[in-house]
Automatic annotation (TrEMBL):
The keyword Signal applies. This is Cysteine-rich protein. The keyword Signal applies. Keywords: Signal. It comes from the Eukaryota. Residues 1-19 form the signal peptide.
Amino acid sequence: MLSRKSFVVLLAMVGLSNAGPLAYGICQSGCNALVVACYAGAGFTFGTVTAGAGVPAAIVACNAGLGTCMVGCIAAGFTPTP
């Protein structure tokens, strides 16, 4: 059984726990899965298209969606999660 001192230390540590970086990584993985599906739907492979004047509009839209999703992940990274 925990002593009173050990219990107090354990309670103090609970408030310091943050899973924000883990949530951020999980969110980024989800965003990347979505952009891979978007590229596949447009008939391309993610990571093989270089930026330039000849980039199809569908790829530009996929990249814009990825950027929006990644910005949303910042909130997950900074939110303290016990």
